[in-house]
Design a protein that fits this description.
Family: Belongs to the CoaE family.
Strand content: 5-15%
Oligomer: single chain
Structural class: alpha/beta
Distance between the termini: 10 Å
Strand order of the largest sheet: 2-3-1-4-5
Number of helices: 9
Catalytic activity: 3'-dephospho-CoA + ATP = ADP + CoA + H(+)
Bound molecules: adenosine-5'-triphosphate
CATH superfamily of the largest domain: P-loop containing nucleotide triphosphate hydrolases
Pfam families: CoaE (PF01121)
Largest sheet: 5 strands, parallel
Order of helices and strands: EHEHHHHEEHHHEH
GO molecular function: kinase activity
Shape: globular
Function: Catalyzes the phosphorylation of the 3'-hydroxyl group of dephosphocoenzyme A to form coenzyme A.
């Protein structure tokens, strides 16, 4: 079984970009947030549970998730957020385990925005946090998603766990800052993780 490495970071930190560099090195990546969205539409058991909890309106007639309805349902209702998480997280956990068992590399990466917040870090052997200054993150996301506003991004960042707390809970930190080359940092960490996997 491969070593299980988590990779996380706040919005715009560059965690997906960093994960893609590992992927070029041949490391399989489980993109947890995207996979969760996929499971919410394609795992029939999960679809049934969501419909039972939130009503049939949670899906559009074509079977796609009614994101607008669901986000309005949970907005400002922490108990409803808890309910949806209690349905989605176990499904992702199971799916991740099955995926992991079919991988044959020394280690794999699980990329997720909320690795600490969801508690999924406890299933992982090591955690990488990608950090960059808030100003840089906001500028990057505004370039990527021009429909977003700076205020909206500040609001999202305020809701996320602060970088200092994430890094203190992590085993490795990648600083994705413009004056610090990214690829050499990834290569160095890749070497370390291969060595660690060998020792295990
Ligand atoms: P989100 O949580 O929003 O998914 P993320 O942490 O996965 O964000 P990315 O999507 O990897 O972040 O990066 C945000 C944007 O910044 C992307 O458009 C990406 O191409 C760009 N970016 C990331 N790192 C760098 C870098 N070192 N130099 C230049 N651009 C970068």
């Amino acid at each position: 079984k491969p070593l299980l490495i988590g990779i996380t970071g706040g919005i715009g930190s560059g965690k997906s970009t960093v994960a893609r560099v590992f992927s070029i090195l041949g490391i399989p990546i489980y993109f947890a947030d995207e996979r969760a969205k996929w499971l919410m539409e394609n795992n029939s058991n999960l679809v049934k549970e969501i419909k039972n909890a939130f009503g049939t309106e949670s899906y559009l007639p074509d079977g796609r998730l009614n994101r607008k309805f669901l986000s309005e349902e949970v907005f400002g209702h922490p108990e409803k957020t808890k309910t949806i998480n209690s349905l989605v997280h176990p499904a992702v956990k199971k799916d991740f385990e099955a995926w992991t068992n079919s991988q044959h590399t020394p280690y794999i990466l699980k990329e997720a925005a909320l690795l600490f917040e969801t508690g999924s870090y406890v299933e992982l052997d090591k955690i990488i946090t990608v950090t960059s200054p808030i100003k840089v993150r906001i500028n990057r996301v505004l370039m990527r998603d021009p429909h977003r506003s700076e205020e909206q991004l500040h609001a999202i960042i305020d809701q996320q766990m602060p970088d200092e707390e994430k890094t203190s809970k992590s085993d490795y930190v990648i600083k994705n800052v413009d004056n610090k080359l990214l690829i050499p940092q990834v290569l160095q960490l890749h070497e370390k993780l291969l060595k660690l996997a060998k020792e295990n």
